[in-house]
């Protein structure tokens, strides 16, 4: 089976939650599946990139867009996690550290140390997010952290002023707590991005932006391939260059597009309850 990144920048995998309670959704990957995948990749010679290393490759000096190159020979990838769940410190980072791997977690900054009341309730109990102390400890061990916006609202649905605050406040918090490097990148909530989002992201000071499977290749609209529970092979679809990899990426793209349902349900719940999404963490069941 041929393995190759998809573009001139190294491929990017996007996990959400590793292990922990079962859910009604699709983002939980079993702990044993994840361990098997990472161990297989390490044994096959793959290495993970830090966010700074990825940035140097993805944004060459003087370049505006990454050009397609389907047979790039390097076995390296950016490993990312969205939402910043506390289970990363228990189920994920120790394994990666033992393998010599690193990763970038995209944090919902208003929910650091809180439970995931920004989301629909896909588990029996609310899920805990990483605390700042845990984030700082793993940052000191070489793991990167970046923005997943302030409250995980779908940016394309926000007006200009609210969007600017959502992007800017998240970056301000990250750079104040973790240093300038933490303000380099953002993963757009739900992978939702358009020209207006790109304009505000650039104005906020971000250098890299990650969307869904179908990025444009420009630095603020790079592709990532989500890894969902059905992606249980030794090599995730996002790192495969064969027909199965292509099919898996298409299915992941469709599943990611279906996440609009979560945004709709969140909006309905907010109207019924009278609680705005950006304030839910103030009454979260921690």
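Sequence proposed for the structure above (286 residues):
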């Amino acid at each position: 089976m041929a393995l190759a990144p998809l573009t001139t920048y190294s491929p990017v995998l996007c996990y959400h939650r590793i292990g922990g309670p079962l859910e009604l959704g699709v983002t939980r990957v079993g702990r044993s599946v994840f361990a098997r995948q990472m161990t297989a990749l390490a044994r096959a010679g793959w290495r993970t990139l830090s966010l700074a290393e990825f940035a140097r490759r993805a944004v060459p000096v003087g370049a505006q867009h990454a050009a397609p190159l389907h047979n790039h020979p390097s076995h390296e990838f950016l490993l990312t996690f969205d939402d910043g769940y506390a289970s990363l410190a228990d189920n994920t980072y120790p394994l990666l550290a033992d393998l010599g791997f690193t990763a970038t977690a995209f944090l919902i900054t208003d929910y650091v140390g809180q439970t995931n009341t920004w989301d629909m309730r896909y588990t029996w109990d609310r899920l805990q997010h990483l605390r700042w102390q845990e984030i700082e400890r793993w940052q000191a061990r070489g793991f990167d952290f970046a923005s997943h916006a302030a409250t995980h609202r779908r940016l394309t649905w926000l007006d200009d002023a609210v969007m600017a605050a959502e992007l800017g406040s998240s970056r301000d918090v990250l750079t104040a707590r973790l240093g300038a490097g933490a303000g380099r990148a953002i993963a757009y909530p739900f992978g939702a991005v358009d020209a207006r989002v790109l304009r505000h992201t650039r104005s906020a000071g971000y250098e890299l932006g990650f969307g869904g499977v179908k990025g444009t290749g420009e630095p603020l609209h790079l592709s990532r391939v989500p890894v969902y529970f059905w992606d249980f092979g030794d090599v995730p679809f996002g790192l495969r260059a064969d027909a199965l990899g292509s099919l898996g990426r298409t299915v992941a793209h469709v599943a990611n597009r279906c996440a609009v349902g979560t945004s709709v349900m969140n909006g309905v719940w907010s109207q019924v309850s009278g609680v705005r999404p950006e304030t839910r963490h103030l009454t979260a069941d921690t």
